Amino acid sequence: MIEIRHLEKRFGDRAVLKDFSARLPAGVTALRGPSGSGKSTLIHILLGLIQPDAGEISGLAGKRLSAVFQEDRLLEAQDAAGNLRFANPEVSLEEAERALRALGIEEVRGKPVREFSGGMKRRVAIARAALHRADFVALDEPFTGLDAEAMEKAAAFLRETLRGAVVLCAAHDARETDLLGAAGEIRIGEGESGRRAPE
Predict the structure, then answer these.
(1) Spatial distance between the Cα atoms of 63 and 134, rounded to a whole number of angstroms
(2) Burial classification of residue 19, based on how many CB atoms lie within 10 Å of its CB (0-12 exposed, 13-18 middle, 19 or more buried)
(3) Could you give all domains of the chain from N- to C-terminal order, each with its CATH number?
(4) From the centroid of its chain, how far is CA 138?
(5) Which H or E element spans position 41?
(6) Helical spans, DSSP H, in 63-197
(7) Which burial class, exposed, middle or buried, applies to 149 when counting CB atoms under 10 A from its CB (0-12, 13-18, 19+)?
(8) pLDDT tens digits for 126-178?
(9) Pick from 13, 44, 112, 192: most CB atoms within 10 A?
(10) What is the DSSP letter of 182?
(11) Could you read off the pLDDT of 100-138 as tens digits, one per residue?
C-alpha cells in the first residue's frame, strides 16, 4: 500500500497539485483527469524525479520502481533485448526474447531500435518497465501509438508480468485501464483533492 497525504506542487503561480491525498493498494489503479491536471506531475513525484512542495508519501521507501513514460526513452543504438537487459541486467537473453515475442516484436535481434516503428518502440518501453521486477510501476499513457491488437497483447503481458505490484496507470481512455484489470480509480484536477482507490 502506498499512501499519499496532502500533496502540493506548484510551478510558478500555478498550483498543479493542491492538498492531494490517495491510497494505492496492490493491483492496478486508474489515474484520470483532464489534460494538464497533474497526472504526469504526480507520477514524477512518486518516482522521485521531482520533489513536492508539501505533503508526504509512505510505502515507497526501499522499493524498486519502474515506469512507462509518455516518451519511450530508449537507447536508440541498442537492439530491443539490449534495452531490456540494460535496465535490468538480471534479465536473460531468453527471457527478453520471450517478452518481445509476447508483445508481437519478432525477428529483430541485432536491429537497433532507431529503425523500429513508433509502435514497436512503445512495446519495447513496456517490456523494459515490466521486466524491471518493480514493486511500484507507473504507466503514463502506456498504449500510445498501439493499434487494438497490439494494445490487447501489451495489456495481457502487463497483467501477467506485474501481478502483485502496485500499478498506477494514467490513461485518457477508460478502455485501456479496463484491459489492465484496474480495480480502483483516482480522479485528479476536477475540483477534488483526490479519491481513495478501493482497498
Answers:
(1) 7
(2) middle
(3) 25-51+63-182 (3.40.50.300)
(4) 3
(5) helix 39-46
(6) 80-87, 93-102, 118-130, 148-161, 174-179
(7) exposed
(8) 999 999 999 999 999 999 999 999 999 999 999 999 999 999 999 988 999 99
(9) 44
(10) -
(11) 999 998 767 789 999 999 999 999 999 999 999 999 999
